[in-house]
């Protein structure tokens, strides 16, 4: 037990407390170095949000939807108990034959309408915020394949594919069914526009911590955006049933500082060059024009 007063000195003298403190300090420094957002065992609710959109989604859920859902559920439960007890056969042997009550009919039509309006206003506001894409600093194109994702940085001549890491190949710290062999790398606090399409069937590109989810439709380009305000590794999954290996095409996004991002871009341009000879592209484009 720790005495009041010389709290830390006393705690640090006890070997058990010292181990606990050291473990805590180690864990805290480790998590701050490599923050990652992924589902946790026994987790309830959302993953930690790192974008303003997801903050708004969480606010809408916690402070608008949950109170309304709870109030309606409690009210309906109360009504059920009330009629079961008050109008039970022994207490009420001759039930009323009333079929219409204008006042109640108006009330039970109007109140749900008002509730829907209360939900609709912030909901549409959020929808427009997600839909209107600010001027992008970085553009990434995600292409869904059965069953993996391909990523293109159209302004940088970069293209690579991202496949799930099999259980036997997992490295320490990599989450099962979520880690991928290559990662999308983006800078922190910058607006990232994501163009989403598919090469075969419907998929969906989704990252819970960013509040982003968009369908990948063959022959069409959908777009979304995010601005992550914390460096780290963020995991998502395909969120549209796309076939037998739908559960095995995860998404990994690594958010890094701008300097690290620029370093990565330089490396990626060599490692993942889409067109090895850039002059060829210009030539072909000139030919077409
Ligand atoms: Cu899928």
Describe this entry's structure for a reader.
Helix content is 40%, strand content 21%. It has 6 helices and 11 strands. Strand 2 (138-145) and strand 3 form a beta hairpin. The longest helix has 35 residues, at 52-86. The radius of gyration is 27 Å and the shape is elongated. The model is unreliable at 1-12, 24-33 and 283-289 (pLDDT under 50).
Task: Give a brief rundown of this model.
The chain has 289 residues and is α/β, with parallel strands linked by helices. Helix content is 40%, strand content 21%. The chain has 2 domains: 73 residues, no CATH class; 138 residues, Cupredoxins -  blue copper proteins (Immunoglobulin-like, Sandwich), CATH 2.60.40.
CATH evolutionary superfamily of the largest domain: Cupredoxins -  blue copper proteins
Which structural class matches the secondary elements? alpha/beta
**Average predicted confidence as pLDDT:** 86
Distance between the termini: 80 Å
Proportion of residues in extended strands: 15-25%
| Global shape | elongated
Quaternary status of these chains?
single chain
Main pleated-sheet profile:
6 strands, mixed
Rg is 27 Å
Helical run tally: 6
**Percent helix:** 40-55%
Give the CATH architecture of the largest domain.
Sandwich
Q: Indicate the low-confidence ranges by residue numbers.
A: 1-12, 24-33, 283-289
CATH class of the largest domain: Mainly Beta
Cofactors, ions, other ligands = copper (II) ion
Total discrete domains: 2
**Strand-and-helix sequence, N→C?**
HHEHHEEEEEEEEEEHH
User: What's the CATH topology name of the largest domain?
Assistant: Immunoglobulin-like
Strand element count? 11
């Amino acid at each position: 037990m720790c005495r009041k007063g010389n709290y830390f000195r006393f705690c640090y003298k006890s070997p058990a407390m010292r181990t606990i403190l050291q473990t805590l300090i180690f864990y805290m420094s480790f998590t701050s170095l490599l923050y990652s957002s992924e589902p946790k065992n026994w987790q309830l609710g959302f993953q930690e949000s790192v974008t303003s959109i997801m903050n708004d989604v969480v606010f809408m859920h916690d402070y608008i939807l949950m109170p309304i859902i709870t109030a309606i559920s409690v009210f309906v439960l109360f009504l059920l108990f009330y009629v079961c007890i008050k109008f039970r056969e022994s207490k009420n042997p001759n039930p009323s034959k009333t079929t219409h009550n204008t006042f109640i009919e108006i009330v039970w039509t109007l109140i749900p309408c008002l509730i829907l309006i209360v939900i609709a206003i912030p909901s549409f506001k959020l929808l427009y915020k997600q839909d209107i894409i600010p001027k992008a600093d970085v553009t990434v194109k995600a292409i869904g394949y059965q069953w993996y994702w391909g990523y293109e940085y159209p302004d940088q001549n970069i293209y690579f594919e991202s496949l799930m890491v099999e259980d036997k190949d997992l490295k320490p710290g990599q989450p099962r069914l979520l880690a991928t062999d290559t990662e999308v790398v983006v800078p922190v606090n910058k607006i990232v526009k994501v163009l989403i399409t598919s090469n075969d069937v419907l998929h969906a590109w989704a990252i819970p911590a960013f509040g982003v989810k968009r369908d990948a439709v063959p022959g069409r380009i959908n777009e979304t955006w995010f601005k992550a305000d914390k460096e780290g590794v963020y995991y998502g999954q395909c969120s549209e049933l796309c076939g037998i290996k739908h559960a095995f095409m995860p998404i990994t996004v690594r958010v890094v500082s701008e300097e690290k991002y620029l370093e990565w871009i330089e490396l990626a341009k060599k490692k993942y060059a889409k067109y090895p000879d850039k002059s060829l592209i210009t030539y072909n484009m000139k030919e077409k024009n």
